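Write out this protein's structure.
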Amino acid sequence: PLVRESVQRLEAIEEQRAKLPAVMMEQELVEMALSNDVLLVCGETGCGKSTQVPQFLFEAGFCQGGKQLIGVTQPRRVAAISVSQRVGEELNRPGAVGYQVRYDKSHCTKDTRIKFMTDGILLREAQADFLCRKYSVIVIDEAHERGVNCDILIGLLSRAVQRRRRDFEAAVASGRFARAEADADAAKDLPPPPLKLVVMSATLRLCDFTENRQLFAVPPPVMRIEARTFPVTAHFARQTEDDYILSARRAVLQIHKQLPPGTILVFVTGRQEVHRLCKLLNQSWAAKSRGEQQSAEEQDEEAADEAAGGAIDQLEASDDEDDFDDDLADANGASTAGGAIEGEAAADASATCAGSPGALAPGRGPKRRRVARAPATGEPEAQSAAPSAAKKKRRAKSRAKPQGDEAGGAGGVASAAEQNSLQSTADGSGPAGQEPSSRAEEEEECIASFRIDDEEDVVVLDPDAEERASAAEDAKDAEAKRQKRIRMGKLDRSRTANGVFGGIGFGEGPLRAMPLYAQLPARAQLAPFGPPPADARVVVVSTNVAETSVTLPNVRYVVDAGHEKRRKYRASSGVSTFVVDRISKASADQRAGRAGRLGPGHAYRLYSAAAYENHFAQFAPIPMLHTPMDPVLLLIAFLGVPRLDIFPWPTPPTRESVVAAVQRLRALGAIADSPGAGGPAHADAANA
């Protein structure tokens, strides 16, 4: 019988845990684990499964009084380290939780009861002990990524679970446990208790496990945990551009300058792009700050507004109606970005004709860059005002467009229905004619009226009459927007003081770009997980490591480039290479969900809605089906598996690829001709 562990958590930790949906499922999960050897846990991002499930099993007594461990695998070491530290903090017993990653096993001691590790570490341990005797429960987290190591582990553990169950029941039937109570020497030879396998994922293909009789003879039960997250609005770009790094930079700078506080999470493909974008952001904001210093007069005006601003904490809808409408008409659509996608230009064009969400606004063609004509002699004023006049011309044209055209663009608010809802809120015609009554609604108005400008600064040929004619109107509009930003800043500072989102907004301070990827040093990996600074906005530039493996604090905005680095294998040449490819729709949803942890979030997708619908697969391809089988089968043979052709894969590769790989390995002398003779003969694996 299991003996429950006593855990004394801090009161603040208990309050935080109470908000996680997984905590409500503790009793159900423990009962299912007691009555089943294999359990599938399918929980959405943010439900708390990664941190809470190991604690449930620990408190239920699955460590057998300290005789065995609870093992938890993660696909990346940054996840193994950060989650282990969080679990130790929640249990208030840091020594009971340890982790082991490549080249670092110093954080596991004799007091460790819950061990976090990468899947490669557990695979190496299985080479020496196929039955994993020191573990009572093994949790495979983030199984939806379906890495090669993860698939091999699930196949091996499916046989280890069966073998340990058979050995345990045979020992009970033969009376060995009864004799061990009287003979201490006999107790040393007792088999370990049955192994429990828990497979957890956010977007799990359940059919690969529940319908695969070769993997699990009895379909395992499935426990679903719903995430209690806030809604996230997805904004698409008008077109998919080639250089998504520059588009991401432009989007981040505009979000920082025009929107309320909240960390910005940017997804790119690899280490080189992470560092490139971090460098661009730091340089761009430094240059922008130097070029946009306010005059003394503007600073005095702003200080006066600040002093007299105590009476406008609660804005009237009628006072803000003109500003809101102007902002909505002034927006130019979402930032264009993404990678070079074959055939997407045609898809975007067809979407324009069809009026799809990803279409360009009617009457708007692709942007053109023109060369400036040098001003004539005696025109110093025109020479200095040309760039700003060009901006004014572009913005004046934007205001002249019908508002319906903007609703057709995919770069702004996600749907026309949402625009109508926001408009009714702004003009006081919402439900029961109510006015905005909370700071959150005011901030959402500001965010809803924001759209990423998809045009660079344009240099025009003749900055003369038309620009000067619109200068007065444009200056008035700029002043109105500045006043609104001041009012929203007051509201936002009050809300930030209440602990909803940390940091600064509306460009009131600097950007602080932080990299995050798997090979980053451990100390640098933990930097984005700290509390946000009070005098800056944090931008985390990450690979897909932040997609599901870890949860970053304070994230309110997500900028998604829509690409990831993926290994592809060419069977014709026998060569595997890394390529930058589109993510799946499931991955896009996971990335967007990162913005909905603390409050309503926004995901700015740097690709068009047409590209998303026509060129993004529903799920990412399974790596096992695009990997050369030679090294995989060599590893399995080293483990002592007798029949390489009938290994229980979650998603089996083609029989032809397996047979061809076995023939090549035998021709090289890497494995023996007789079954089970490849590598050291593990009797446990051969008999499983």
